[in-house]
């Protein structure tokens, strides 16, 4: 019992979702002594969803393994390729099975806000007893409650997107992470490259004040909800989407080139332009983006993207402008800042 309490204390001591899932895997490994524990999450929509490995530990293994943070969606196993996991998700209940080698598999659903978001897969030599299953389910209830608290503190209450206070930490992780191989994708906007770069985009809804003034704030809120839905459907599951307040949204994404980033944001612009918003009709957005440079400060990168947005709004709105291209054309001053140093 003291060991279980220690693990629960560790589980609720982190504010990082990656560490939360890894700690959960370690806790179950220490408590159950299985052959393997794996934490799988579903990403994507409906029948097109796929399995993302959040943490896996084998017996005597010290460090958990997981899928890379920017893994391509197409490289993940489809939902229907793992029958037991799909059954566990569908039933929202414990599911048991057996491998071809005679190992026992016990799967526990990971629940959040009344729906299953993933599974815990436990491989053992002998069946997991009813008492042990109850203990694991109790730990997972604590996990679910803490996961809900993280959502409450990290997400915008209206749109469900990440909120502004989570941005700086995620940005710094991105800026400090060395560039690595770009993940393959069939999406024409993202190409394979020897190294990947990160891009910050600021999305500002055009004439949003007029929407509120003409139709009221309830309709304005509906527009914000629908814009958030368009953002989710336009970008990949691993791209980070934020609402910064009002009509301003921020996107942090990874791709190989400025051209690819421009295509991604142009697709968003077109998706918004072509969407018919109930009662309101047509709503457009202006987008500015910039490359995240090594050692960049969050405020500096945001300022560059914001300058590009301002230029877009001053020059017709409903357009995508890249800070780098505007500087090359002499339309903006190059005021790139690295940390607290401004480079001219």
UniProtKB/TrEMBL annotation:
EC number, UniProt record: 2.7.7.65
GGDEF domain mapped to chain residues: 196-325
Catalytic activity: 2 GTP = 3',3'-c-di-GMP + 2 diphosphate
Protein name, entry field: diguanylate cyclase
Natural source organism: Caldimonas mangrovi
């Amino acid at each position: 019992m003291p060991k279980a309490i220690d693990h629960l204390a560790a589980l609720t001591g982190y504010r990082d979702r990656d560490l939360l899932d890894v700690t959960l895997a370690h806790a179950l490994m220490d408590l159950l002594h299985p052959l393997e524990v794996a934490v799988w999450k579903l990403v994507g929509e409906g029948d097109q969803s796929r399995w993302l490995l959040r943490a896996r530990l084998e017996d005597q293994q010290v460090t958990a393994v997981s899928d890379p943070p920017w893994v391509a969606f197409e490289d993940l196993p489809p939902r229907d390729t793992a029958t037991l996991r799909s059954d566990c998700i569908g039933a929202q209940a414990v599911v048991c099975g057996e491998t071809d080698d005679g190992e026992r598999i016990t799967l526990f659903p990971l629940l959040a806000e009344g729906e299953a978001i993933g599974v815990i897969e436990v491989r053992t030599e002998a069946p997991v007893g009813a008492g042990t299953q109850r203990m694991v389910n109790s730990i997972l209830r604590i996990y679910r409650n803490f996961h809900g608290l993280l959502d409450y503190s990290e997400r915008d209450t209206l749109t469900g997107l990440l909120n502004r206070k989570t941005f700086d930490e995620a940005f710094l992780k991105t800026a400090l992470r060395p560039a690595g191989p770009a993940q393959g994708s069939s999406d024409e906007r993202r190409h394979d490259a020897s190294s990947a770069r990160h891009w910050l985009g600021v999305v500002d809804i055009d004439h949003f004040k007029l929407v509120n003034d003409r139709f009221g704030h309830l309709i304005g809120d509906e527009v914000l909800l629908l814009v958030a839905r368009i953002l989710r459907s336009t970008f990949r599951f691993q791209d980070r989407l934020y609402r910064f307040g009002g009509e301003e949204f921020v996107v942090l994404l990874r791709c190989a080139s400025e051209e690819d980033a421009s295509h991604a944001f142009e697709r968003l612009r077109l998706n918004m332009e072509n969407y018919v918003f109930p009662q309101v009709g047509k709503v457009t957005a202006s987008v500015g983006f910039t490359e995240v440079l090594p050692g960049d400060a969050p405020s500096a990168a945001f300022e560059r993207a914001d300058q590009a947005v301002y230029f877009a709004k001053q020059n017709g709105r409903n357009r995508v402008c890249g800070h780098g291209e505007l500087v090359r054309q002499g339309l903006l001053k190059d005021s790139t800042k690295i940390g607290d140093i401004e480079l001219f």
